[in-house]
Write a sequence for this structure.
C-alpha cells in the first residue's frame, strides 16, 4: 500500500502522483467513474497499474488516497 | 559548427563514453541523450534521480544541503541548528547569498552558523542533552528569534538520537516552535530528497499553526514559493507582482519569516518558481486548502511577459489592466537592453549544467539576447523536470543528467561553446581551458537575475564574461613565440 495523490491535469485528464518515489504520470483509464462509485483499477501511461478502493466521487481534487500496486511501471 | 544533427550528437556521446568499463558505460549511457522535442515523456529518452556511480566525479550535494542550505536556511528570523559535527554547517555558511533585511545576530540569523559541534562522547552517549542545552543557550543569547529548526547531520540518524522528543520538550520551555528535520546527509541520492524532507517538515510542524486565526485577506493575496532571493531575486520578483496589484503575503523562503509561512494557507494563489524544491508543499496546499499553484518563469522579457499574463489570468480585470500597463512600461527598457547587447552576443553558444530550475528557465533569457543553448543538464532533477526541459530545448541538442566531471569536460572540448553556465566547481577548469564561465548557482556574486531589473544585470554580466579580453591572453608569451615560429616555418 502506498500513499498517492490524484489531481486534475492541465489537459483535463487525471494525474497520478506518488510522493514517496516522486513519480508523476497521467491516468489513462479509471475503472469506475460515476458520482457514487469512483476508483478501482487505475492504468497509468507509464505502464503501471494501481488499485484504489472505490469511493463516492470526491467533490474536489487533488485528493490523497491509499493505493495498492498491481503492476509496476517499467523503469 | 552551429547546430549538430542527431547522429553527430549521438556519436559524440558514444565517443565520450568509450573510456568507461562496460558496466559503467551502460549505466551512464542512460543519462545522456540527444534531445527530441516531440517526445512527451522524458523517461523514454533519459534516466534521472538515480544513485551516482562510485568512482566518478559527481557534483551533487546531500539531503542536509537540500534542507538546511536551500529550503530552511533562508528563513531569516529562525535559528537553524546544524546538529552534528561542526563542518557541515561551517563550510556551507552564507555561501548561497540569500539576501535579507534585518540585523544579523539580533532579529535575523541568515548568515550565522549554529552547531552542536559533536565530539566523540556525543556519538557514544548520544547528543540529546547537548541539543537541549544548546536550545536553552540560544534562547538566552538571541531572545528575539522566532523559532528553531534542528537540521540533522549524518551521525544523528546513525546513532538514533530522538530529536523530535527534545524538540517537543524544549518548545514548551521556550514557548517558541522548534522543528526537528530528519535531513541526514546519507538519505537519498542527492539534495533533492532533502528538499522533500524539508517540505514535509514544514507541512507537519509549521504550515497549519495559524489555521483558524483571523487574517485580513484581500482577493489579491499571493505567495512567492521557491524563490531564495539569491542576490535579491525575490525582491525583483516582488516589485513586479506588487505593480500588478497583487499583495505578496509570503516569500518562501528567501527573505522569508516564520510568520509568513504560517500565513501562506490564506493566500489565493501560490506562485511556484523553483518547481523541484517546493512542488511538494504546493501540492499539499492545493489539496488541503484548495490553493492552486502556478509555475512561472521570470528570466528574460519573453518569459516574463508570458508568465505575467498567465498570473493575471487567475485574477479580475483590474489586475489584467495593470499587468498590461506594467508590460508596456518596461518594454522600452527591455528594447534598449536588447538593442545594446544583442549585437555583441548574437549567435554565441552556451552550455549549462546547474540544479533546480535554471537549466530550463534561463534558456529563454539567453534566446532573448540572441544566444543559443547547445547543451543543458541537471544535477538532481527528476523525470518531471526533463518533461519540461525537452520542450524548451532545440532538436538534437545535448541533454546530460548528473554529468560526471570527465564527461562535462569532454563535451565542452568537443562542442566548443562560447560560454559555460555552471557552478564554482567547474569554473576554474573551464576558464583555464579559455572558456568564460558564469556561475549560475548564485550568479557569480552578482544578481538579481529575476524580473525586468534582473534581466538588465543578466545581459550585462553575460557581456562582461564574453567580451573580457582575458581569454585572448591565455597563451603565455613564450609559447606564443613558438606558435608563431612554427607558423612561419610552415
Amino acid at each position: 500500500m502506498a500513499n498517492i495523490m490524484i489531481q486534475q491535469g492541465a489537459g483535463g485528464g487525471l494525474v497520478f502522483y506518488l510522493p514517496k518515489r516522486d513519480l508523476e504520470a497521467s491516468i489513462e483509464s479509471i475503472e469506475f467513474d460515476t458520482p457514487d462509485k469512483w476508483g478501482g483499477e487505475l492504468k497509468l501511461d507509464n505502464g503501471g497499474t494501481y488499485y484504489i478502493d472505490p469511493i463516492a466521487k470526491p467533490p474536489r481534487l487533488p485528493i490523497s488516497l491509499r493505493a495498492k500496486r498491481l503492476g509496476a511501471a517499467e523503469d | 559548427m552551429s547546430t549538430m544533427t542527431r547522429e553527430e550528437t549521438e556519436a559524440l556521446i558514444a565517443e565520450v563514453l568509450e573510456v568507461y568499463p562496460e558496466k559503467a558505460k551502460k549505466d551512464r549511457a542512460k543519462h545522456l541523450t540527444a534531445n527530441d522535442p516531440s517526445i512527451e515523456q522524458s523517461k523514454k529518452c533519459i534516466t534521472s534521480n538515480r544513485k551516482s556511480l562510485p568512482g566518478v566525479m559527481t557534483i551533487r550535494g546531500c539531503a542536509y544541503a537540500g534542507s538546511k542550505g536551500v529550503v530552511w536556511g533562508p528563513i531569516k528570523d529562525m535559528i537553524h541548528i546544524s546538529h552534528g559535527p561542526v563542518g557541515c554547517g561551517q563550510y556551507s555558511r552564507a555561501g548561497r547569498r540569500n539576501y535579507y533585511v534585518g540585523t544579523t545576530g539580533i532579529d535575523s540569523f541568515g548568515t550565522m552558523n549554529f552547531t552542536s559541534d559533536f565530539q566523540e562522547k556525543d556519538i557514544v552517549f548520544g547528543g540529546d542533552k547537548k541539543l537541549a542545552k544548546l536550545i536553552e543557550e540560544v534562547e538566552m543569547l538571541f531572545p528575539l528569534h522566532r523559532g528553531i529548526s534542528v537540521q540533522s547531520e549524518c551521525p544523528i540518524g546513525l546513532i538514533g538520537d530522538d530529536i523530535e522528543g527534545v524538540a517537543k520538550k524544549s518548545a514548551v520551555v521556550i514557548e517558541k516552535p522548534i522543528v526537528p528535520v530528519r535531513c541526514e546527509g546519507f538519505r537519498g541520492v542527492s539534495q533533492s530528497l532533502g528538499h522533500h524532507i524539508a517540505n514535509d517538515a514544514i507541512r507537519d510542524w509549521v504550515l497549519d499553526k495559524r489555521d483558524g486565526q483571523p487574517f485580513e485577506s484581500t482577493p489579491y493575496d499571493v505567495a512567492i514559493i521557491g524563490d531564495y532571493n539569491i542576490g535579491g531575486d525575490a525582491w525583483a520578483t516582488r516589485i513586479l507582482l506588487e505593480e500588478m496589484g497583487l499583495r505578496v503575503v509570503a516569500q518562501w523562503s528567501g527573505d522569508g519569516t516564520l510568520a509568513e509561512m504560517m500565513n501562506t494557507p490564506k493566500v489565493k494563489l501560490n506562485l511556484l518558481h523553483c518547481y523541484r524544491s517546493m512542488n511538494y508543499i504546493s501540492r499539499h496546499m492545493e489539496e488541503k486548502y484548495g490553493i492552486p499553484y502556478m509555475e512561472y518563469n521570470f528570466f528574460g522579457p519573453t518569459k516574463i511577459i508570458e508568465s505575467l499574463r498567465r498570473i493575471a489570468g487567475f485574477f479580475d480585470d483590474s489586475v489584467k489592466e495593470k499587468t498590461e500597463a506594467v508590460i508596456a512600461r518596461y518594454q522600452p527598457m527591455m528594447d534598449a537592453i536588447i538593442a545594446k547587447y544583442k549585437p555583441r552576443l548574437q549567435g554565441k553558444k552556451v552550455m549549462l549544467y546547474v540544479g533546480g530550475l535554471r537549466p530550463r528557465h534561463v534558456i529563454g533569457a539567453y534566446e532573448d539576447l540572441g544566444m543559443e543553448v547547445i547543451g543543458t543538464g541537471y544535477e538532481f532533477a527528476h523525470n518531471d523536470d526533463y518533461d519540461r526541459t525537452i520542450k524548451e530545448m532545440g532538436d538534437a541538442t545535448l541533454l546530460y543528467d548528473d554529468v560526471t566531471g570527465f564527461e562535462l569536460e569532454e563535451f565542452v572540448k568537443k562542442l566548443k561553446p562560447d560560454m559555460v553556465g555552471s557552478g564554482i566547481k567547474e569554473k576554474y577548469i573551464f576558464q583555464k581551458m579559455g572558456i568564460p564561465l558564469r556561475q549560475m548557482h548564485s550568479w557569480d556574486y552578482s544578481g538579481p537575475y529575476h524580473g525586468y531589473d534582473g534581466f538588465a544585470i543578466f545581459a550585462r554580466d553575460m557581456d562582461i564574461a564574453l567580451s573580457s579580453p582575458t581569454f585572448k591572453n591565455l597563451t603565455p608569451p613564450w609559447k606564443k613565440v613558438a606558435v608563431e615560429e612554427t607558423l612561419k616555418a610552415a
